[in-house]
Design brief:
By secondary structure, this protein is mainly alpha-helical. The chain has one domain. The chain has 7 helices and no strands.
């Protein structure tokens, strides 16, 4: 038994139809941007620069900037951490190798690069919008917030780097490993074509 509005009723409401169309178009553009990490990160750098300029010229919103910094630090920790933490979970063979004789297992991030980029970009956009509402401009002594964030960043990164060294993993992919040219048997024996 159908509802009183019928089967296609939600699509007939203009706002719902517009929201669905917008969501579909937005997802399409996100999907098209996936193979272009340099362009995505340059766009995020532009958004971050706009936010920094806005906060600088307004001379305020230090709490918003501090919250943004804490959120980005949290995302960075997820980006640098393995999906399966060898300290927390003892699994049968699904953890990172700890000795040179162990089988190679690729590094899988807890937070993939695309989601990391998307969350940071959204965070800068939300923080930028928040700078237009005076309710978020709480008067604080910003040097203390900056000092506290720097101390938090250093301590967190020190702990993360020690974790990387202890379990011997590198969370960055420098690129595909290149090998020397393979010589054919004829060329290596001195005969040429």
């Amino acid at each position: 038994m159908e509802g009183a509005l019928g089967e296609n009723a939600p699509d007939s409401i203009p706002f719902v139809k517009w929201r669905n169309d917008f969501s579909r178009a937005f997802q399409h553009h996100l999907d098209r941007s996936t193979p272009h990490p340099v362009g995505r990160w340059l766009g995020t750098l532009a958004v971050a620069s706009i936010y920094v300029l806005r906060a600088y010229f307004v001379q305020g919103f230090y709490i918003v900037s501090y919250g943004l910094g804490i959120y980005v630090l949290n995302l960075l920790i997820g980006f640098l951490s393995p999906m399966v933490d060898p300290e927390l979970e003892v699994l049968d063979g699904a953890s990172l190798p700890t000795r040179g004789s162990d089988e190679f297992k690729p590094f899988i991030r807890r937070l993939p690069e695309f989601k990391f980029w998307y969350a940071i970009t959204k965070a800068f956009c939300v923080a930028f919008v928040m700078t237009f509402f005076s309710i978020f401009d709480v008067p604080v002594f910003w040097p203390i917030l900056l000092f506290y964030w720097i101390v938090l960043f250093v301590l967190t990164m020190k702990r993360q780097i020690l974790h990387m060294v202890k379990y011997k993993y590198v969370p960055f992919d420098i690129g595909k490993q290149k090998y020397g040219r393979k010589k054919t048997a004829a060329r290596s024996s001195g005969y040429s074509d």
